[in-house]
Specification:
It comes from Phormidesmis priestleyi. This protein is α/β, with parallel strands linked by helices. It is built from six helices and ten strands. It starts with a strand and ends in a 15-residue tail after the last strand.
């Protein structure tokens, strides 16, 4: 499991805590929703889980061990803004080959056209570039995905296409997925379990009945 235990984080010694005593865990193949209004630290919590930020207190572990500090990380974070994760000076083909190139089946599932591969990032729309940012982490070396408002900027049809492609990868590879969003209807369609960030310590489960996108659902525990 990917676990965050008693996580605390703030951006400066004299600034307020952004994350306070939060604990959560996601299992291989599980789709876990993380919901909260703006300002509750859900993006920062996602960065802690992915190893982008070191917690001031607490620890993040994968299978009981700290996240590796070198090489390709088994926990990959997908930002809301794809510009944060691609080199603007590289062509799309080089961006996709930087780590472990995704299979063509995943490119097709995300609606990525072969004509995009020779272009630079600025020559794609935001939605097209987001598909590239997602595709580049869909490989067997990724064990967990943290999706931070990944499709918030996209229209409903494109959202559905992308989530279907990502969930097919999650099911096939038994990858754990954390979906960070304030969109409750979307989370209810995607997730096995939804945790709500509230004032206090650990996130609270929101009971729900899955509505789609995912073939099986269960109530939160």
């Amino acid at each position: 499991m990917l676990k965050g235990d008693n996580l605390w984080f703030r951006y400066g010694d004299r600034l307020p805590w952004v994350v306070q005593n939060r604990s959560l865990a996601v299992a291989p193949g599980e789709v876990l929703g993380l919901m909260a209004p703006s300002g509750y630290g859900k993006t920062t919590l996602g960065k802690l889980l992915a190893g982008y930020l070191p917690p001031n207190k607490g620890q993040v572990t994968l299978a009981g061990k700290p996240l590796p500090k070198k090489g390709y990380s088994p926990v990959q974070l997908i930002f809301q803004n794809p510009d944060l994760s691609v080199n603007p000076r590289w062509r799309i083909r080089q961006i996709l080959q930087e780590g472990y190139p995704p299979k063509h089946a995943y490119l097709d599932a995300l609606g990525i056209h072969s004509g995009w591969l020779s272009r630079y990032p600025h020559e794609l729309s935001g939605g097209e570039l987001q598909r590239i940012a997602i595709a580049r982490v869909l490989n067997p070396h990724t064990r967990y995905l943290i999706a931070d408002e990944m499709t918030a900027m996209l229209d409903a049809n494109t959202q559905a296409l992308i989530w279907q492609g990502v969930l097919a990868f999650v099911r096939r590879q038994q990858v754990g997925l954390v979906v960070i969003s304030h969109d409750e209807p979307l989370l209810k369609r995607l997730c096995d379990q939804i945790l709500v960030l509230v004032d206090g310590s650990s996130p609270q489960p929101l009971r729900h009945q899955g509505q789609g996108f995912h073939p099986t659902t269960r109530n939160a525990t």
